[in-house]
Design brief:
GO molecular function: ATP binding
Number of domains: 3
Keywords: ATP-binding, Cell membrane, Kinase, Membrane, Nucleotide-binding, Phosphoprotein, Transferase, Transmembrane, Transmembrane helix, Two-component regulatory system
Main location: membrane
EC number: 2.7.13.3
Protein name: histidine kinase
Distance between the termini: 66 Å
Number of helices: 10
Strand content: 15-25%
Amino acid sequence: MIINKITIKLGLWFFFVMLIIEVCLFFFLHTSMVKSRVEEELIALQARGNNHREVLEDSYNEDTLHHIAVMEWNADTEVIITDREKNIIISSSKLAEEEKEILYKKIESVPRNGKILENRWKSEKYISTVSPYAVNGQQKGYVFMFKSTDQVQGLISRLNHHFLVAAVITVTLLILTILFLTKSITTPLIQMKRATEKLSRGDFSVHLPNMGEDELGDLSRSITILAKDLKHLKEERSEFLSSISHELRTPLTYIKGYSDVARRRDLADEDRERYLGIIYEESEKLSNMIKDLFDLAKIDKNTFVIHQEKVQLCSYLHAICEKMLPAFKEKDMNLEINCNKNIHVLIDPMRFEQIFLNLFDNAIKYSDPYTKTSVFVKREKGDVLIEVRDEGRGIPKEDIPFIFERFYRVDKSRSRDFGGTGLGLSIVKELVEAHQGCIEVKSELGKGSAFFIQIEEMTE
């Protein structure tokens, strides 16, 4: 039913528009051709009268007059030769009343090349012309030519018949063309409408055929991409809900379990202190996770405000490294920074610090003692490239595309030993992009990882 509605609506619209255009064109063409044919008949009739005049002027006698009358006897035209007072000298046929009316019309002046006396082929029975002739330099009389309008109307009738046949063929071809065009236009539209209906029902298994490189093809590809994105978003949401429920359940289970044990009256003070310590650690993890989730939620809702200001990058990074240096030394690790350039950037100092704290925290968690973490800063094509490189365990090649996803962990079996929530790198990526920058990672298993942050340099 939907197909019929769209096809009929577009088809009728195209049909009536094209029909109006064709009717106007046919009317103009028909009128022009009819007018042209009538003019040709009148010109031919006038030329025939002029030819008779020339013969008369060359040899005016009874034989010539008789010869002219005989010439028109079996022709589709009639000739009447008169004197100056319109007295008939000779006629090729008996005059009809309509011819007499034309013949005795008052003629004021007739030029040498003749004159059209009657051209109303639709309402009159004859069309007529007159040509003056002279003998010995003196006007002798007139040559009147007549032609029945039945012949003209027959010619026009045949012309109308040809136009009618052409109109029928044209309308038939027009209908077939419109049916083909509307089908070729509406079929993709209907397919895309059904695809969007599937999307609205939550069914993202949309497969649209290749519809070319025009606007319909672009729309089809956009719907397919939208379906894939929505499917991915749905899967991400399901995975996110599953992950967050698991991540919240685990520390809560620890807290609840050890709280029940710690409440026992016969428990030794040493064991109670150990259990309370575990409860505190799990509470800290839970608090950090909720803080990270809160930050991500604000970023998703575009309520995560970035207060940018001009910052001298090298001194700023040195201050962050000084703050983190005790944590590295506690694990017998080194932290170095290579930045002595006068580089200014437009950043939110508090939010940008969070990026490096998360990256340094990961370096500490996933690196062994006596390894080194380095920070390099350099200019690159008008931007600033910041590299944070560690000598840790590295990231497997198959995991690299997913490390910025929420709750994604490379080593899921050991993640709780390192205390990660799987949200740190997600927050890093969101914060970098909030500063109109980008972040990439290169890593080799067993040799460490390098994170590259690219932001725009602020010129003076």
